[in-house]
Amino acid sequence: MNAVKLSSKFQLAIPKSIREELDLKAGQQFTLITKGNMIELVPILSSKEARGSFKDCNPNDYRDRQDRI
Question: How far apart are alpha carbons 51 and 42 in whole angstroms?
Answer without folding.
Answer: 17
